[in-house]
Amino acid sequence: MLSVDENTELLTRQWHFPDLADEAALARLWGLAAARGWFDSGSLAATVALVRATGAAACPLPVMDGFVATGLLATAPQITAGIAAGDIRILVAVTDPATGTVPFMAAGTAASHVLALPSGGGRASLRPVEFAVPQPGLASPAWARLHLGGPEADVDVGPEQAGRALTLLRLGLAVRAMAAARQTHDRSVAHAKVRRQFGRAIGGFGAVQQRTATREIELVAGELLIEDAVRRLGADAPDGVLATELAVSHATAVASRIQLSAHHTLGAGGYFEEHDAPWLFRRVHADLALLPTCPPPNGTVADLLIGPATGLPVVGSTSRAAAVREEARSFCAAHRSRVRLLGKGDDPGLVAEMAARKWFGMTWPAADGGRDAPLIEQLAVQDETAYHQLPVAIAMAAVSVIGAPIVKYGTAGQKARYLPRILDGELTFCLGYSEPEAGSDLASLTTTAIRDGDDWVINGTKAWIGNAHAAEYIWLAVRTDVDAKLPLAGISMFMVPMATAGITTEPHQALSGQICCTVRFDDVRVSDCARVGPVNRGWQVITDTLTGERLLLAGELAGMSRRQFDELLAAVRADPDGVAGPSGSDKRARLSCLAVQVQAVNLLLTEAAGRAGSGAAHTARLASSMAGVLAAEVAEQLSRDVLEILGPAAALDAPDAPGAGIFEQGLRLSVLAFLGGGTNDVQRGLIARGLGLS
């Protein structure tokens, strides 16, 4: 079996629109692929990798059909050997085995046989193709209506086997469509870097960056959902079917709009058939159109969740992280809050119990009081506390926002002063970044710190500072070089006691119920020992620990969204048809969509944490930004859709209301989700620049 790159090279050479990609080329490619072992991989992961390669080439070579047929015909070794050798060019059709005609078959003009598979199980029939009638239209090469001969072999297929076959065929179509969309998207990104309009590369235009970042998030989320489905199906996990339907539902929702968005960026050059984009467009839409011919074996995502499934599949992690999560889950479940009262601060007793379990600062070096744990373990604890709505968010945030930079940049004295208190959950703080004229654009901050001997004198105003009215310290970004040519080069970081003379606070109540403050600094004098990190290098202090901070914010949202989704699911299960309607209803469609989005956020968070743990700083920052954007959007969509699914009762804040008030609070909090840590628009700009657009 050749590598994916080598097989992709084969496709590139043998299948290229408009010159080499037709029915005759497909038959020739089928034989070449068989000679290279494409139909004898024995591995679902390898098969999916090959399907992905065909999608990127806009090629309908039915690799997944071969894999499925080989599995179903395992008791007929002569036939499976013929499939592997390419002597039997097989398609799988979900139809009555007695049917003599099968419509809408991709690659049908090159096929020699069809395995007719009854959707609910029964006797499947291998039948030769007597002749094929091309059906010109969207698909290229055209679909065909196949006229079949008499059975050459029959095989009994149980309901579970048939269900797995349908699941795999659906996965194959989704993988191929997403891969084609990915290819067009990547071409559009490359185009945006060089195409100039109005005197600059179009990749520098905000609209192009926003669109590109949105599509990249959808693609990465889809790829992670597919990988998760492949892992579970490959291991015969009981939630493999649900994981697959999550991936298929996502592809159905996003692949066509990713394709269209890429065409938008490519412009007229991508509309003509000398370019690959038109052929990829055909591939995406043709494969999505075929999905209904392969119905889901157990219904939609919503049907599965309302029925046999216990909930969304648990996102995989290391065995140690899973153990930490289980320990945290048990603890949190025993202290589960109805709804966290935002703005009321942490519960000292709960914080002390968590500190006793050494759940703060887990990722820090042992020399600093931590245990050198990977980030995924800290996030497991954070996720469970957010899910169970434990009032410990400030203590958790102190670990990432203040503790991490002090671990990396702090002096011995600063470490001794602050780290033990953060580990004990006793240090309360607020974040002093935003100003009236400097929100997401931190480079525009105007609060200054001027050196005066061994001290610094701070003047300026910070705005929208959460918890400032109750905090002991403010983690403060100030300008220490007002003449810096590069604005970010003149910023420094300080840890300032809120009780320092000259600091005043003016509280404001937010839509969420939280208290935020305007904080004014009037000739506030602090010692140089309050500075953390080098002078004028504060931006580096911030960005070196930014991934952890973004994951903290995204994790808080994701945990709450998971709780909301589970509460929604519980309400629906109590009266499925009354609340969500019958299978196929609009409310069930909304529930399916929400399930996909919640699961995608969980996978993105895990991926970002894994990249951070592997030392891949750039890709970790990119993934954390994507997780943050998607988490915010899911939080808002979930809260809004819940009101439409459950009705007015979900808007109540009462113990006997659905979700006990978490839905209406989640909706009010969702606005902040788009703002915290930099607005989603700014984050998309960062993602686009991470892809090379500027």
Q: How would you sum up the major sheet?
A: 6 strands, mixed
The number of helical elements comes to: 22
Structure classification: alpha+beta
How many angstroms does the end-to-end distance come to?
Answer: 40 Å
Helix content: 40-55%
Query: How many runs of DSSP E, i.e. beta strands?
Result: 16
How much is the average pLDDT?
A: 92
- The rough form would be described as elongated
**Radius of gyration, taken over Cα atoms and rounded to an integer in Å:** 28 Å
Low-confidence stretches: none
How much strand? 5-15%
Q: How does this model look, in words?
A:
With 694 residues, this protein is α+β, with helices and mostly antiparallel strands. Among the domains are: 4-159, no CATH class; 543-690, Butyryl-CoA Dehydrogenase, subunit A, domain 3 (Up-down Bundle). It has 22 helices and 16 strands. The protein has helices at 4-14, 23-35, 44-56, 63-72, 77-85, 159-194, 206-234, 240-266, 277-290, 301-306, 319-334, 348-356, 375-387, 393-409, 412-423, 538-544, 546-574, 576-580, 586-613, 617-646, 662-673, 680-690, and strands at 90-94, 101-105, 113-117, 122-135, 143-148, 153-157, 196-197, 200-201, 429-432, 448-452, 455-466, 473-479, 491-497, 503-509, 515-527, 531-532. Strands 1, 2, 3, 4, 5 and 6 form a six-stranded mixed beta sheet that branches. Strand 4 and strand 5 form a beta hairpin. Helix 7 (206-234) crosses helix 19 and helix 8 packs across helix 19. The mean pLDDT is 92.
